[in-house]
Amino acid sequence: MKVADSVAWSKRWGHSVVVAQNKIWVLGGGDERVWKSDVWYSQNGSDWSLATPSAPWGERHGACVLSRNDTLWLFGGSEGGVLRNDVWYSEDGRIWQKVTDSTPWSARWGHRAVLFNNKFFIFGGEDKELNLKNDVWYSENGRNWSLATESANWSPRCRHAIAVLNDKIYLLGGEEVRLKNDVWYSEDGREWQLANPSSPWAARACFSSVSFQDRIWLFGGRDSLGLRNDVWYSEDGRVWFETPSPPWERRRCYGSIVFENKIWLLGGNAYIPKNDIWFTTGLGVNEENKPSFAIEIFPNPFKDRVSIRWEKEDYEITVYNTLGKKIKRLKKGERSWDGRDGFGRNTSKGIYLLFFQSENRYSVKKILKIE
To answer: From CA 159, how far away is CA 60, in angstroms rounded?
Structure first.
């Protein structure tokens, strides 16, 4: 749903967005010609107030901003083309205190940050010598930092995405020599496991992800062909499902947060800077909208063909394997699957997922093909 086509803060991308004090905050960013040091806040996404037109951290874009105990924290980024590794905090968005001018992690942008176990974590990015990083740092106070790992299992990269789900940190995609669509996870920031080496969503950078409704969500960004506005979600980083395309324009370098049980998207670069505001209650996947009636699948396990029966809803059915790769989309009204992919080739035995999607409902069912 569109909240506003244009709001009080100017059109921009590369800004930072965070939730604190039951408000949405927007910090910095710009349109390449003019970078900003302003800070704005809103309680509803449509009415905005200016906390300060000129924060002391300067004209900043590509910074990471987190909230802890309703205090805003800013880490690094580019100030007027100069990369920084400073840390600032503010209790009201107006008065800012510098915690440190230089952390042990190098000045960078394109890095990502997350609050995990009440600690600040920094992941990767690009330094002033254009070196890509795969280091991970953490701190309890923003001043004293510890190195979790100098070289994580994931390759050096920038402009990736980070999410926290079920006590795990997930790192998704990003940019190295080429764009990536791998997914990694860690329980401590030090040891990393590969969840999916090649997810079904296109390799991309300049996108973000959020945790919502016990799932990781990612959307938009930039791939090898241009900007995107596709939306995907996963419960474990391994198996991914795509939802219907949203109404907002393709874009990168936008802001995204979860606020008042909704996913919000703010501004970004849609080939031109934007200052529009959108939200969704789940992009078509809402726990309250799950079907209350049964979907019957029989036989299960099956050998040659599985039949599907349901009532009251016009579903589109797609078959995936357990890595999230689409095997086949059934024709409208088709109520069985013969175990073949979209090219008519017989699939191997194993577990498959039937994804049922309608305009406002969804369901996922596991089936087992045997010999």
So the answer is: 16
Range of the domain at 214: 2-284
- Of 94, 75, 88, which Cα lies nearest the Cα of 21? 94
- CATH at 346: 2.60.40.3080
Q: What is the pLDDT of residues 73-119, one digit of tens each?
A: 999 999 989 999 999 999 999 999 999 999 999 999 999 999 999 99
Q: Is residue 220 pLDDT above 80, yes or no?
A: yes
Same domain, 304 and 278: no
In CATH, what number is assigned to the domain containing residue 189? 2.120.10.80
Q: Are residues 164 and 91 in the same domain?
A: yes
Same domain, 261 and 340: no
Last residue of a domain, one of 260, 284, 308: 284
Domains held by the chain: number: 2
Residues 117 and 204 in one domain: yes
170-207 b/e with 16+ CB inside 10 Å = b? bbbbbbbeebbbbbbbbeebeebeebbeebbbbbbbbb
Same domain (yes/no): 205, 335: no
Predicted model pTM:
0.82
